[in-house]
Amino acid sequence: MSGQGSGAFGGGGMCPGRATAMPLRGSVPCMEQWSKKRHFRSFAVMGAVMSAVPASMATSGAVPQTPAASGAAAPPAVAPSTGAGSTAASVAPAFTDTIAGTAIRVDMMAVPACDGAAPFFAARTEVPWELFDAFLYQLDQKAGASTPASDAVTRPTKPYVSVDRGYGHQGWPAISMSSKGAVQFCEWLSKKTGRTYRLPTVAEWQCMAKQTPVSVDSITESAWTAADAKNASHKIGSKKLDALGLADLWGNAAEWCVAADGSFCILGGSFKDKKIDPAAMKPIPETEDWNESDPQFPKSVWWLVDGPYIGMRVVTNDANTNMKPAPSGAAPAATEKK
Fold this sequence. Notes:
By secondary structure, this protein is low in regular secondary structure.
């Protein structure tokens, strides 16, 4: 394992203007500085939704969940809370990936093709902390369930402060990782499962958005925004699912995606946004402003000091014919894993 970069999350833990380390959990002074640093622009959420749900999602905290013992059977996949009035709770996943060395399963939903995007599979919810922790802290290796290939993936430097910002941990969306950290997570997940996981493209997000339309007036039924989030992220899947069975597509954490030129951007409304207009959704290019407050030099390449609202989801084009088939009329053509 290797990793470089320093900074408030990966080698410092310093608040801007302070000479001593200061933790980020709760309403500490440096957290207030970051939250008031700038006005956050509105944007609409990136698709690719993950349901990586552990045996329990009822508690929160900064301590990573202990993974299941090597060889132990994973618990049944637990559907996320669908919220009052959900009309998509019965949408079954196309297939479910079990992550060896953890008690986590990933529900993948079928997304039909549309303009600019071939059919693909999107994870039901945003990547939760307990799955990102398994990558970050090599919990699968400690459980004796890693492989040489997964162990060889470069990981972020360990954060010296609570990157969950005190919002919640187990069952909450992982946040504040850089695009580099998001890409490396996808590489690790690919090595763990044998299928290629990646960040969604802008075209793929637009494809999902077209198939899960919402209005400005109804957005809070399925998305956490500044209107009701109280300046914090919330438990994944705690609001209404959409027509594809995806959770939090329009809000909670904004998400990393890949533009046509290969650059990184984010799409999606977040708990910071006062107004999300689905009809005006545009990608926000990656910017150094998301790490402007990092007092260290060089700044961290793994963590975003000023990006507490940025998370990630994954997609894949790979399916195993032994997996449960996707819902009728909504399944991409399955391909055998070599």
